[in-house]
C-alpha cells in the first residue's frame, strides 16, 4: 500500500512539471543602433543579429565569470566536399591555423613564390599515377617546403591566442559544419576580434605538407577505431545517395593521396562568405558594445551568391540491409533506422521513443535487458542531423550469446512500443527529467554556444524557438500517437551492422612519405603578432576561495557536513563520501554493481529504477580506489523521497542468486572484452611501468575468485556501508541548519563508526635503466608512452610544474615545445603530449608521462624526436612568456562556484592545504624565469632512463629496433590484466 501511495505522489509531481507550458515566440528588438531578433522566455537571452553583409552574430550574456565562449561557424562540411576531393573541408580547417600575409610569415613577398610553386607541384602530383614520378615530385615538394619554411612562423595564431588568454583553441569539421572555437577572458575582446578578422580575411596555406601528414595520421587513427568503422558502415547503408553516407569527413585514402591546394582555395572562396557564417559568443559581454565591434571588425567581408548542398530525397528503405564489420575489438550489434529532418515533429517523437527505450534508469532496454542482464549492455539513441536523423539500437552480447540473439532482444523491445506495452507515465517522466537537465544546462556558456551554433547550422537560427519549446512539445505527445507512429516507422527497413572480432582485410594505411623537418622559427614574431601581444589591457583581478567563508561546516549526527547554498534554482546534489574503496575492500566495487539488480522487501529492482525516474532524481554509487561515494540529485521538493529511497535500498536490499550468477558471467565477459581494447591495454601497460607486476590496474579479484563470490558477503558490505565514517556534502537551496535537521530524520547512523580495513599500498618502481614494455595488438599505428617516477609530490614545486607543463607539452597546447616539434616541424604524429603528472595526494609520487601516436613505420623517428626533447629543452623566450602569461591568466579568470567549491576544498585538503592552493600557485608563478624551468628539466627529465610502453602490431614494426630503446619485456595480456 505504501508503494502505491508513494508512486501516486510521484506521478502528481511529474504531471505538474510536464504540464507547465511556456510560450516561445520570435520578437524583434533594437538597441545601440542595431536590430536583432530574440525569442520570448529564452533562458539564454540570446540575440540574433544579421549584419549588412549577411554575417550572423549570435550573442548571449552570462556574467557569472569573466570569460566568453567563441565559435565561428561555417555552414560547410564534408557534405559540400567535391566528389573528387573528399576530406577537403577538413584539410581547410587545419590550414585556417596557418596565418595570412600579415601573420605566420617573416617575409611574405619572398615566401609567396615558393608557396605558389608548392601549390603547382601538388596539382601535378595529384594527377600523376606513376609511383616513381610521384616520389620525384614529392621530393621536390619536400625541398621547396623546406625553403618556404625559412619564411614561415609556425603557430603564430596559437601564440596570439595564448597572449590573449584563450583556454581552448580548437576546431572541428563535421558533415554540415566547420567550427572554430576559443574560450577567452572578457577583458581581451578588442585584441581577439582583431585576430579573428585578420584570420578569415585572406588565409595563406603554408606548411601544408607537414599538416597533410598530420591528417594522414588522423586517418590511420580512424582505421584503428572499430567504433568509427561501425559508424561509417552504418551511415553508408542508411544513406546510399546522401553525402551523410557517401562521404566521410576525413575523406578516402585515394583522395588524401592527391590533395589539391587549388581546390581547397576554391572551397574557401565559395563557402567562407559572411552570408554563410556566424559568430557566436556567450559569456561576460555587453550586447551593444560587442555587436558594434563585431560589425566594425568584419565589415570587409563581401557576401556572395551561395548554393549549399541540396540533395535529392533518399528513397525509402524497404528491406533489411546487413553489413559486417571486422576489427580486433569486442563484438556488438547495431540496428539503425533512417529518421527525419531537424525540428520535425517526427524527429521529436523519435527522440522521445529513444528515451522510453533507454534513459539509464527506467527505459524498456534498461529494465528488460540491462536490469535483467539479458545482454552485456544495450542502449538506444536518436542523433539528429539537418536533413535526416539516425535512430540506433545497440547491444553487446554476453557470454554464450551470438549477435543474432542480441538483435532479437533489441527488436523485441521495439515490438513492446508498437503493442503499447509500456507505461504512459514514462512520457511524463522523460519530460520532467529533460526539464531538470535544462534547468542547469543553460547556465553553461559552452551549452549555450553549442545549442545556438547547431540552430544556425541547421536553419540559420530561424527555429531556435522550436529548440526551446521541444520539451513542452514532447509533453503533448500521447501514448496512442507513439504507438501509431511506431507501427508505421519500425518495419523491416533498418540497417543491421554486425561488428565481429577478426582481421579487417580491407584496411589500407596511408603510407609515410619522406618528409624533412621544416623550420618553425618559433623565436620570431611578425609585426602584426607583436602588436597583438604587446597591447596592454586592464587585467582581471583573481578571485580565490576562502573556505571558512565560502563553505558551511556542520554535523548531522556523527557525520560531518559540508554545504554550499544554491541560490539560483531548486536543484540539489548530495553525496555521502567514505574514505574507503577497492584498495580497502576488493569486493566493494562488485557489491556496488550487484546493488543495481537487487530488490528490497518493498520494491523490485525495476520499481526502484522507475521511482527515481518518476521523481526526476538520480542516485549512484561509485567505488574508487580509496574513496566511495553515494550521490543523490534532483529537485529539492523531492529530496525527502529520493534520500528515503536510497536509505531504504542500502539497508534492505536482498540477495538474488540468479542475478549474482548472471553478474559473474557479465564480469567475466567484460574482462574478455577489455583484453580486446587497445586503450585499456595501454593503460594497463603504463600502470605496470609505474608500479611493476603488482599494480592498481590489475588489483582485482581473479576469475576464480569472481566465480566464488558469495551473495551474503556483498549484501553485508551494502547493509553496513553507512556504518563506516563518512562526510556528507550538500549543494542545494536549503541552509545548513535546515538541511542537517532534515537529513538526520532520513539518514540512519550508528552510535559509532566501524573502522575501515587497511588500505592496500603499492610500491612505485625505480627506473635505473631504460626498459621497454611491449604489448602486441593488431593496429595500424604504434603508440609509445614514456614513463618515469620522480618521487613524492611536493606542493612547493607546483608553480614550476604548472609552467613547465604549459611550456613543454601539456595536452591540447598547440604552442608547446612537444607539439611544435613532433607534429608541426617533423610531422611524426597527429597526437602527442608530455607532462609531469601531479597526483591527488602528497603520499603519492609524481610521474613524468609523454606520448606519441604515430604510424608504425615512424616509430623509430617518433621515439628519437621525443627523446631529443626529453634530453634538451628548446629555448624560446616568446613561447615561455606566453606560457607564463597564460598560466597567470587562467588563474585570474578562473571562478570556482556552486559545488565546485566543495570539490576544490576536498582536493586541497588531500594535498595538505587548508586554503585555496591556487593562491600559492599564483604567487609562485610570478617570479619564475626560463632558467627556473630549464633547471627543472635538467634535474628531472634530462639524461634520465625511462620506461617505454609500446602498443603496436609485431607485423608492422621491427622488434629488433626496440632493443635500441632498452631491455624488452613483451608482456602477455595475463601479465597486464592479472587474469
UniProtKB/TrEMBL annotation:
Claim: NAD is one of the keywords in the record: no
Domain Peptidase M16 N-terminal: 59-109, 149-247, 595-675
GO molecular function: metal ion binding; metalloendopeptidase activity
InterPro entries: Metalloenz_LuxS/M16, Pept_M16_N, Pept_M16_Zn_BS, Peptidase_M16, Peptidase_M16_C
Domain Peptidase M16 C-terminal, first and last residues per copy: 261-430, 756-870
Residue intervals passing through the bilayer: none
Signal peptide segment: 1-20
Keyword GTP-binding: no
Cofactor: Zn(2+)
Keywords annotated in UniProt: Hydrolase, Metal-binding, Metalloprotease, Protease, Signal, Zinc
One GO term (biological process): proteolysis
PANTHER family for this protein: NARDILYSIN (PTHR43690), PROTEIN YHJJ (PTHR43690:SF17)
Similarity section: Belongs to the peptidase M16 family.
The protein's name in its UniProt record: Putative Zn-dependent peptidase
Organism per entry: Pedobacter cryoconitis
Amino acid at each position: 500500500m505504501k508503494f502505491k501511495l508513494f508512486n501516486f505522489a510521484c506521478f502528481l509531481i511529474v504531471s505538474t512539471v510536464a504540464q507547465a507550458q511556456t510560450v516561445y515566440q520570435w520578437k524583434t528588438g533594437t538597441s545601440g543602433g542595431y536590430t536583432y531578433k530574440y525569442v520570448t522566455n529564452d533562458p539564454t537571452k540570446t540575440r540574433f543579429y544579421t549584419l549588412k553583409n549577411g554575417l550572423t552574430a549570435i550573442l548571449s550574456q552570462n556574467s557569472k565569470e569573466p570569460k566568453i565562449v567563441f565559435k565561428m561557424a561555417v555552414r560547410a562540411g564534408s557534405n559540400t566536399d567535391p566528389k573528387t576531393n573528399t576530406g577537403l573541408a577538413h584539410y581547410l580547417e587545419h590550414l585556417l591555423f596557418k596565418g595570412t600575409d600579415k601573420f605566420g610569415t617573416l617575409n611574405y613577398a619572398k615566401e609567396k613564390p615558393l608557396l605558389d610553386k608548392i601549390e603547382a607541384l601538388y596539382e601535378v602530383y595529384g594527377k600523376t599515377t606513376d609511383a616513381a614520378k610521384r616520389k620525384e615530385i614529392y621530393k621536390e615538394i619536400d625541398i621547396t617546403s623546406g625553403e618556404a619554411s625559412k619564411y614561415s612562423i609556425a603557430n603564430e595564431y596559437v601564440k596570439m591566442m595564448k597572449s590573449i588568454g584563450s583556454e581552448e583553441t580548437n576546431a572541428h569539421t563535421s558533415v554540415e559544419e566547420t567550427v572554430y572555437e576559443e574560450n577567452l577572458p572578457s577583458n581581451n575582446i578588442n585584441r581577439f576580434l582583431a585576430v579573428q578578422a585578420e584570420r578569415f580575411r585572406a588565409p595563406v596555406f603554408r606548411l601544408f605538407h607537414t599538416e597533410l601528414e598530420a591528417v594522414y595520421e588522423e586517418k590511420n587513427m580512424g582505421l584503428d577505431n572499430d567504433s568509427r568503422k561501425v559508424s561509417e558502415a552504418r551511415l553508408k547503408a542508411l544513406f546510399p545517395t546522401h553525402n551523410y553516407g557517401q562521404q566521410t569527413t576525413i575523406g578516402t585514402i585515394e583522395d588524401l593521396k592527391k590533395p589539391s591546394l587549388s581546390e581547397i582555395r576554391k572551397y574557401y572562396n565559395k563557402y567562407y562568405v559572411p552570408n554563410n557564417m556566424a559568430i557566436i559568443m556567450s559569456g561576460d559581454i555587453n550586447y551593444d558594445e560587442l555587436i558594434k565591434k563585431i560589425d566594425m571588425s568584419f565589415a570587409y567581408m563581401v557576401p556572395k551568391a551561395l548554393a549549399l548542398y541540396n540533395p535529392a530525397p533518399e528513397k525509402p528503405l524497404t528491406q533489411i540491409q546487413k553489413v559486417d564489420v571486422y576489427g580486433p575489438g569486442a563484438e556488438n550489434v547495431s540496428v539503425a533506422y533512417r529518421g527525419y529532418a531537424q525540428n520535425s515533429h517526427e524527429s521529436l517523437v523519435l527522440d522521445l521513443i529513444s528515451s522510453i527505450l533507454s534513459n539509464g534508469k527506467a527505459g524498456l532496454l534498461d529494465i528488460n535487458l540491462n536490469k535483467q542482464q539479458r545482454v552485456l549492455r544495450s542502449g538506444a539513441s536518436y542523433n539528429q542531423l539537418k536533413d535526416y536523423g539516425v535512430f540506433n539500437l545497440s547491444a553487446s552480447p554476453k557470454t554464450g550469446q551470438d549477435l543474432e540473439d542480441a538483435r532479437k532482444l533489441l527488436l523485441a523491445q521495439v515490438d513492446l512500443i508498437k503493442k503499447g506495452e509500456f507505461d504512459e507515465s514514462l512520457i511524463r517522466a522523460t519530460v520532467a527529467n529533460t526539464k531538470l537537465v535544462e534547468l542547469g544546462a543553460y547556465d553553461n556558456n559552452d551549452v549555450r554556444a553549442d545549442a545556438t551554433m547547431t540552430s544556425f547550422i541547421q536553419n540559420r537560427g530561424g527555429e531556435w524557438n522550436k529548440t526551446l519549446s521541444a520539451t513542452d512539445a514532447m509533453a503533448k505527445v500521447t501514448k496512442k500517437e507513439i504507438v501509431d507512429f511506431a507501427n508505421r516507422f519500425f518495419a523491416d527497413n533498418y540497417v543491421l551492422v554486425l561488428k565481429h572480432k577478426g582481421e579487417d582485410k580491407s584496411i589500407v594505411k596511408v603510407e609515410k612519405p619522406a618528409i624533412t623537418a621544416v623550420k618553425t622559427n618559433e623565436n620570431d614574431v611578425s609585426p602584426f603578432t607583436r602588436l597583438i601581444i604587446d597591447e596592454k589591457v586592464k587585467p582581471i583581478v583573481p578571485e580565490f576561495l576562502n573556505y571558512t567563508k565560502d563553505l558551511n561546516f556542520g554535523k548531522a549526527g556523527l557525520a560531518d557536513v559540508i554545504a554550499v547554498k544554491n541560490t539560483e534554482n531548486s536543484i540539489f546534489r548530495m553525496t555521502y563520501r567514505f574514505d574507503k574503496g577497492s584498495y580497502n575492500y576488493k569486493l566493494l566495487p562488485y557489491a556496488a554493481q550487484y546493488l543495481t539488480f537487487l530488490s528490497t522487501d518493498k520494491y523490485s529492482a525495476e520499481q526502484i529504477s522507475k521511482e527515481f525516474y518518476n521523481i526526476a532524481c538520480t542516485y549512484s554509487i561509485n567505488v574508487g580506489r580509496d574513496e566511495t561515494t553515494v550521490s543523490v540529485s534532483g529537485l529539492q521538493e523531492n529530496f525527502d523521497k529520493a534520500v528515503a529511497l536510497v536509505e531504504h535500498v542500502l539497508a534492505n536490499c536482498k540477495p538474488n542468486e540468479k542475478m549474482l550468477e548472471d553478474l559473474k558471467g557479465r564480469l567475466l565477459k567484460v574482462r574478455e572484452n577489455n583484453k580486446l581494447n587497445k586503450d585499456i591495454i595501454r593503460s594497463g601497460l603504463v600502470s605496470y611501468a609505474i608500479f611493476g607486476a603488482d599494480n592498481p590496474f590489475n588489483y582485482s579479484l581473479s576469475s576464480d575468485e569472481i566465480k566464488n563470490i558469495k551473495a551474503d558477503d556483498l549484501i553485508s558490505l551494502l547493509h553496513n556501508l553507512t556504518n563506516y565514517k563518512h562526510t556528507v556534502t550538500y549543494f542545494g537551496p536549503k541552509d545548513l541548519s535546515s538541511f542537517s535537521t532534515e537529513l538526520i530524520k532520513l539518514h540512519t547512523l550508528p552510535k559509532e563508526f566501524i573502522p575501515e580495513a587497511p588500505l592496500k599500498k603499492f610500491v612505485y618502481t625505480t627506473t635505473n635503466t631504460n626498459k621497454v614494455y611491449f604489448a602486441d595488438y593488431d593496429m595500424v599505428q604504434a603508440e609509445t608512452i614514456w614513463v618515469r617516477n620522480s618521487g613524492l609530490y611536493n606542493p612547493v614545486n607546483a608553480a614550476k610544474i604548472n609552467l613547465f607543463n604549459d611550456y613543454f607539452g601539456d595536452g591540447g597546447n598547440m604552442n608547446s615545445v612537444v607539439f611544435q616539434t613532433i607534429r608541426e616541424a617533423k610531422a611524426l604524429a597527429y597526437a602527442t603530449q608530455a607532462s609531469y603528472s601531479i597526483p591527488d595526494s602528497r603520499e603519492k609520487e609524481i610521474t613524468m608521462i609523454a606520448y606519441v601516436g604515430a604510424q608504425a613505420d615512424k616509430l623509430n623517428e617518433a621515439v628519437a624526436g621525443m627523446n631529443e626533447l626529453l634530453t634538451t629543452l628548446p629555448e624560446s623566450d616568446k613561447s615561455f612568456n606566453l606560457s607564463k602569461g597564460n598560466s597567470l591568466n587562467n588563474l585570474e579568470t578562473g571562478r570556482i562556484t556552486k559545488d565546485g567549491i566543495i570539490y576544490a576544498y576536498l582536493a586541497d585538503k588531500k594535498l595538505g592545504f587548508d586554503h585555496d592552493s591556487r593562491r600559492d600557485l599564483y604567487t609562485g608563478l610570478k617570479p619564475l624565469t626560463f632558467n627556473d624551468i630549464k633547471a627543472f628539466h635538467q634535474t628531472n627529465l634530462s639524461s634520465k632512463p625511462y620506461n617505454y610502453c609500446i602498443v603496436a602490431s609485431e607485423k608492422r614494426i621491427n622488434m629488433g629496433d626496440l632493443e635500441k630503446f632498452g631491455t624488452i619485456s613483451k608482456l602477455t595480456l595475463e601479465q597486464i590484466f592479472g587474469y
